[in-house]
Write a structure and sequence with these properties.
about 300 residues; 9 helices; transmembrane; ion transport; cell membrane
Length: about 300
């Protein structure tokens, strides 16, 4: 997630340089075609780039709005996980009687659940969660493809055991079980966002229309601007392309990039909070921003 208010132009150019080269080549070809092939036969009506520009603005606006909705929903889901995690640990520490070992094991297992979920959403191999699990837990989840879901199942089983041993009363059992249900809901919503592909045609058609707009715009203004129309065509196209790329960077909010939801930071924050509630001595450092620009 970006932290800075002003983005350097160099960062934008690093993300768009390939498209910029294509646009410059397209504008050059359009200028040469108009200058040496069609200038003496007909002129391109200015209404064409005008209508295309209007249509593209609607397309980009719609795409960016939908992309931000996906990103914001993902951020709300993980914000809820932060709140529910703290409540879960607090309930276990204060409501469960005479079984401190089980409480610590369940809180540790919850930290492991968060790291396992994060690794799954990022599509990375992250074994951090294993240090918070017992040998029995590791052996049980080994046969599961969805390890975070398997950990929730173990949590429910341990909670049921606490209830049967009268370490927790029925009302508080229901309250803590509802938190486990919310964890499952947040897990499912995260997986839905990750596994739901943003319609490919939206992005593809927008790219095609931007290319057509850049070409027709160059053809129209080359009559008055001459060779400068190549630069002007690229400049106008750069505005549309940069805006579109900015929106598309939010489409997959769990990707490990500067525009994604900062899962590393959020998970580490929860980890620190829960370990401090357990009064542990070894507390990890918070995740620090990279180059003071963004946090992962």
């Amino acid at each position: 997630m970006l932290l800075i208010q002003n983005i350097r132009l160099s960062r934008i150019l690093r993300n768009t340089w390939q498209v910029d080269l294509i646009m410059i080549a397209s504008c050059t070809v359009a200028y040469l075609v108009r200058e040496y092939l069609i200038s003496h036969h007909f002129s391109v009506p200015s209404i064409i780039p005008t209508l295309l520009g209007t249509a593209i603005a609607f397309f980009i606006g719609f795409n960016n709005n939908q992309a931000y909705d996906r990103w914001w929903e993902a951020r709300k889901v993980w914000g809820a996980l932060v709140n529910d995690s703290r409540s879960f640990a607090r309930a276990l520490l204060n409501y469960v009687d005479q079984d401190e070992e089980s409480v610590k094991r369940m809180i540790y297992r919850h930290i492991g659940f968060l790291y396992a979920l994060k690794a799954n959403l990022r599509g990375t191999i992250d074994e951090i969660y294993t240090k918070y699990l017992t040998e029995a837990d590791l052996k049980e989840i080994e046969k599961h493809t969805n390890k975070h879901n398997a950990l929730l199942n173990i949590q429910s089983r341990d909670l049921q055991r606490l209830s049967k041993s009268n370490a927790i009363d029925g009302f508080r059992f229901i309250e803590i079980n509802e938190m486990l249900t919310r964890f499952s809901d947040s897990m499912g919503m995260s997986e839905r966002i990750k596994n739901t592909i943003f319609p490919t045609t939206y992005s593809y058609l927008t790219k095609v229309f931007i290319w057509l707009f850049v070409v027709t715009f160059t053809l129209v203004i080359s009559e008055d601007a001459g060779p400068a129309s190549i630069f002007l065509g690229w400049l106008i196209g750069f505005v549309f392309v940069s805006t579109q790329i900015n929106g598309m960077s939010l489409v997959n909010p769990f990707e490990n990039n500067s525009a994604g939801v900062p899962l590393n930071q959020i998970t580490r924050t929860i980890e620190i909070n829960l370990l401090q509630m357990l009064e542990e001595e070894e507390i990890p450092e918070p995740v620090k921003p990279i180059n003071d620009e963004y946090v992962l």
